[in-house]
Amino acid sequence: VVAGKFTKNQLPDQISTDKNKLDRAIVWGAKYKLDDNLNAAYYGLDSKDKLERHYANVNYKQALANDSTLTYDVSAYHTKFDQDAVTYSATNTGDLKNTIWAVSAAYHTGSHNVMLAYQQNNGNVGYDYGQNADGGQSIYLPNSYLSDFIGHDEKSAQIQYNLDFSSLGIAGLNWTTAFVYGWDIKVQGLTDNATEHEFFNQVKYTTQSGFAKGASLSVRHSYYRASDEYQTNAYIGDTNEWRIFLDIPVKLF
């Protein structure tokens, strides 16, 4: 169970302690493990004069033969924007509401994992998170990579493959590749059927022993393209991006 009240909102790249001008945000929620295979969670946010948001998730792991598993996951956000909220994908200035939901199924056997996911956005505005002093982190959905596939009325589908190299004699090495395609995106004043797609790859190595045990190095690449109507003026624009992450755990006590 978690609950809290915040009166300032500062992102990691900001110097000012309240550059996002948060008045007051109240958060609450709980995560419950029903048994070894079934988990559920709910969290809520009320950001004064900005928005009210709710998140729910259910995850179930089904055991199969030969130590294989099939994992089902359902998650959703519902957001009601206040009149003073900032949105960039609204098609009207009325009562702004959004519901974005996703379902996924992942099959795991040995060192292989394959996931299929479907994500859909509904409402009279896109899922405009990262604004309105909401903390910028509320995007726990399967189709979130460089693009989050959160356009107004957007639908998206994904296929992901993950390989653990431990069975091949290289413990700690992991590769993930995915392709996501989004369609039916509404862009105000331009179109109701813009598209976007992303090809994602990541290689990660985690040190297994020695003084650097637990440290990891990740190299990530995203190839992203969108239709003309959904370029920079509406979203992030065509992008080829590389990212390198070095994570070093530090034990203080």
TrEMBL record:
Q: Which GO terms describe its molecular function?
A: porin activity
Is this entry keyworded Mitochondrion? yes
One GO CC annotation: mitochondrial outer membrane
Primary location group = mitochondrion
Q: Does the keyword Membrane apply?
A: yes
Q: Which UniProt keywords apply?
A: Membrane, Mitochondrion, Mitochondrion outer membrane, Signal, Transmembrane, Transmembrane beta strand, Transport
Localization terms from the record: Mitochondrion outer membrane
Q: Name one Pfam family in it.
A: OprD
| Highest taxon, organism lineage | Eukaryota
Q: Can you say what this protein is called?
A: Outer membrane porin, OprD family
Starting at the broadest rank, the lineage of the source organism is:
Eukaryota, Metazoa, Ecdysozoa, Arthropoda, Hexapoda
